[in-house]
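QA checklist item 7 of 12: single-chain prediction sanity check.
[x] sequence parsed
[x] length recorded as 957
[x] structure emitted
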Amino acid sequence: MLTLGSDDILLDCHADDWRAALNSAADALVAAGFVEPDYRDGLLDREAQSSTFLGNAIAIPHGTPESRQYVKQTGVRVLQFPHGVQWHDGQQVHVLVTIAAQNDEHLDILRQLTHVLDREGVAEQLADATSAADVARLLSKPAVMPRLDNDTLCVSFPAKDLQELTLAAAARLRQSGCVDNTFISAIASAEPTWLGNGLWLASHAHGVTQPALGVATPADTSLNHHGHPVHALFCLAASGESHRSLLEQLLPLLDHNDSESLVNNTSAQWLATLAGETANTQTQRARVLNPHGLHARPAKQLVQTARAQAVPINVRLEEGSATPVSAASLTKVIGLGARRGQWLVFSAEGEQAGQALAAVSEAVESGLGEKVAAFDGGRESVSPATDSTKPAVEPLADDTPHTGVAASPGLAIAPVFVIRPPSFEYPANADNPEQEVARLQAALKESAAQLDMLVQNAPGGEVADILSMHEEMLDDPELHQAAIEAIREGRSAEAGWWEAIETAAHAQEMLADRLLAERAADLRDVGRRVLGVLCDVKLPTPPDHPYILVMDDIGPSDVARLDTSRVRGLLTVRGGATAHSAILARALGIPAVVGAGETVMTLPNGGMMILDGERGRVTHQPSEDRLQRAEQQLLDQQQREADAWETRFETAQTHDGHRVEVAANLGNTAHASDAVERGAEGVGLLRTEFLFMAHASAPDLATQIDEYRQAIDALGGRPLVARTLDVGGDKPLPYWPVPQEDNPFLGLRGIRLALTQPEVLETQLRALLMAGKDSPLRIMLPMVKDIAEFRAAKAIYDRLLSEIAPSQRATDVQLGVMIEVPSSALLAPSLAAEVDFFSVGTNDLTQYTLAIDRGHPELSGQADGLHPAVLRLIQMTVDAAHAQGKWVGVCGELASDAMAVPVLVGLGVDELSVSARQIPLVKARLREFDLADAKASAQLALAQATSDDVRDALEAR
C-alpha cells in the first residue's frame, strides 16, 4: 500500500506540455529507483487508454498492467507545476501524483485523494504552495465526518424504560468508537428531550471523538415516559457544527404523523427513512462486482449512466451511511468507497424513476465496463474462522492410538476439553475510516494492557519471555500501518487488522525455518487477542476438574491463562516439536502432543483420553484394560519424577560411570539460578539475542557485561556457553534492518549477519570476555557453514584477547561453533582442527538436512532428529572433534528426548543441554543404561532407514 509523504514531493517543476510533464514524472520514478526506464511507455499507454486526470488540478499517472514488469519497487512521486500544464483532455493540472505500482496500489492513492476533489480553492492552493509540507497537507485526509449508519442503530431493544433505551443508544455509539465513557455518564445524568410524536432526543458534547447519531427503538411498542409514548430515541454525539447535517436528517421525521409505525422499522428501513426515502421514492439494489470496487474507471461509467437518465438518482451503501449522495457526482461516488460484494441502494422519484433505476442497476451488475464474475458470498466473506468449505474430518476411533508429534514428555490421563477457534463475526467494510482507526487503536491499547498483566503473572520465565515478544509484535509499527491503510481503503477495523496479521503470518509460513518458534502462530495469537477485544469475544470457561486441553494451536497467551494445577496434558492440531506450543509445554512440565491434525477438533468434551508425550500418541476412549495399564504407567512415571528430583544434584553419568554433562538452555540470564536449583551442571546455551531484543538500540558494553555477569555469578563456577547474537530470519531487530530476501533463513542470519557489522560482534565478545573474569566461559558462533566464517570471527576474538589484560577478562575461555547446517557437519574435520568445541543444534540441523519446515502443519511430524541422516551427521561431528581432542554438546530439543538420550551418548556426545525443567529427568535417564548399551542403541539407530524405523527399533530393544 502506498502513502504520501513530504519527502516524495518535488516542487516548482516546469513543462511545455503534458508529454513533457509525464516524462519528468517518469524520470523522477527512475531516479528514485522505483522503475526501469521502460516504465515510461506504460505511463503513455495508460493515458492513451483514458485520461488519468482526477479533478481539482490533480492527475494520477500510472502504468498499465503490462508495464508492471518494469517496477522494481512500489513507490510514488508528487510533482508540482506552479504554472500548470494543459492535460491531453483539456484539463489544467498543477500536481501529478505519479505511481509505480506492482499491483493495484494506485487505487489506495485514488481513494485517499477523492476527498480533495470537492474542496474549493484547492487547485489554486496547490499551485501556490511553496513547501512540500504544504502540498502534503493539502492532499491529506479531511476532518472526521459525522456518522449515522447501521452500526449506530439499536432497533427493538428490550428496554424497560426510557433511560434504559437512552443508555442502549449511547452504548451503541461507544461500541462504534464515536464516544467514550464520559459521554455515557453525561447522557445518563440528563433527561431526554420530548420532540413530539413519540420521538425523544438525548444529546451531549462531552467525550465525543466523532459526531454521530444513534437511534434506539423499544421492543415494547407500548413503552411511555411521563405519559408520552416512546417510539424512538435519538442519541446525538454533538461536536461544534459538525453534527448539523445529522439534525437536518431528523427534521423530516418531526413532521411524521404516524411515528408509531417507525417503532417496528428494521435497521434497513431506518436507514432508508433517514436517507430521505419516502413513500414517493423508488429504490433498487445492485451489488458491486468489480474486483477493486468502484474505483475511478467504473465509477466514471456509473456517473455517465446516471447523468443520462431523465430523473436525478441518489445512491448509498446499504449497510453504510444513511446519507445518500448524487450518483451523478464522480467524487461522491468514489467517496462511497464501495468494495466488491457490497450492495448499493439507488433511489429516485418521478414517473421515469423505475426506468432510470433499472438502467443504473443493470450497468452496475454488468461490470461498468470491466470484466466481472459473480459474487460468492460464502467464499468471499471475511473472517479468520476456519474454512467452512473444507471436507468433513473423520472423528478419532475409540481405543485406537492416534499419532502426532511428541512435544513434551510425560503421560496424561484425563477427560478432554476442546477449545475451538473462536468465531469472530464482523463486517468486512466500514464507511468511517477515522472511527475505525480509533477503535483499532483502543483495542491495541487494551490488548497491550492484557499482555502486560499476563507477563507479570506468567507461570515461568520461558512463558514471560515469549509473551514479552508478543508485546513487541503488538507494538510493530508495520502491522499497525498495514491495518490502518486497509481501514483507510474502506475495511472495518477488524478486517483491516486481520488482513495485516494474515499477510505477515503467511509470509512467515513461507520461510524455511522457525529457529525458536513458529512466528505465524504467534502472530495469529496476537491477532486473535485484538480481534477478541474488537468483537467482545470471550473464551469458554474450562472445567473445574483435571483435563487434557485440545486446541488448534496453543500460544503464550493461552498458556498464561492456564490453571496448570488442572491441565494434565496439551493436544494441538498444528505445530512441531520446536513450535512455541511445544516449548511452552516443556517449560511448564506438561505432557504434550502437537501437530495431530484436524481430526482432534472433532473430539467431544468429557471423553477420556490417554496422552503419551514421549511417543507422540493419544488414545480416545481407551478400553478398561488399556486405561489400567496407562494408570499404572503414570504412577511409575510420577515416582520416577519424584526420584529424579531427589537425585538432581548427583553427577550426571551413565549407570557404569561414563560422564555426560547435563546443562541448561536459557533464553534469559535471570533464569540461571533456577537452572542451578534444578541440578544444571552449567549453561549449555545462552541465547543472547533476547538481550538485544529487549532494547530499542544495541545494548552498550556496560549493559551487556552486567547482564552476562548475572548468569555467571548464579552459576557459581559452572561453565557458561553463550551463543553470540543470532538474529535475522524469525528474529529481526528493529535497529538492525536487513535487506528483503526471498528466503531470509538461507540468507543473512547468525554469524553471516553479525560479520556485516563487526563492531556489534566485537562489543559483544568484549562484554562476554570481561563478564567471564574468573569463571569458565565458552563462546559459541551460530550458523557457521565453513572455516572461513569461523576465522573471520576468531580474528576479532584473538585481537580482543591481546588487547584486554588477562586480569580483566576470562582466561578459562573457549571459542566454538554450532553445528546447524549440514555443510558444517560434513566439514567437521577442517573445523575441528581450529575450534575448541562443537554444539549441535539439532532443531535446525534436522530441518535443513530433511528439507522440512518444523512448523509445517502436515510435515512437521516428519522433522524428527532421530532420522538416521541426522544421526550420521552427528556421528561425523563427534568423530572429527574427538580426533582433535575437542568436546561435543547437543543443545537442540533432541537432547531431552528420552529415547534419543542413549543414542546420543552412544554416538559419543559429551554434553546434553536441555530446558531447565528437563534436567532432573535427563540425569535420571542417564543412570538407566551403561555405555555399552548406549553404543548398541546408536548402532541400531544408524542401521535404520527412516526415523519411524529408528523409534520402532529402539522401542522393541
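[x] summary fact logged: The first strand starts at residue 9 and ends at 10.
[ ] second reviewer sign-off
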